[in-house]
Give the backbone structure.
Amino acid sequence: MRAWIYDCWNHIMDAEVNPLRHIPDLQVRHMVMQILAFMWSAVFSIAIAESIMAFGISALVHVLFVAAVVVTVGTFKVAEHKPSMFEWRKGYHSHGRGRTYTIYRDKQGNAHKVELPPGDPGGEHE
């Protein structure tokens, strides 16, 4: 039963498995999934709650969910095909230490600038 539910989910929701896999452009695939999400959220919200407000909430949640999935899949694809995109550049330093000073706060929360010694590489991991 569990495998059947998993297969049903993938055949509907996974654009690499369902018939949308034949659309080569990832953005077009995403748009089609968004339109389908709007349609189904409208159907369920009107059928269950008989309310347009329920549709609005459901549509917003679907947009956020599908967008999060697309960002995740896009990140995974970039990591798979271009892992160099995630490598730090030579000479990179965190913002506060990337120059010649950093900002510290005292016990009262007041900020003050602290000059760094010449040649300090900066960054919190060095």
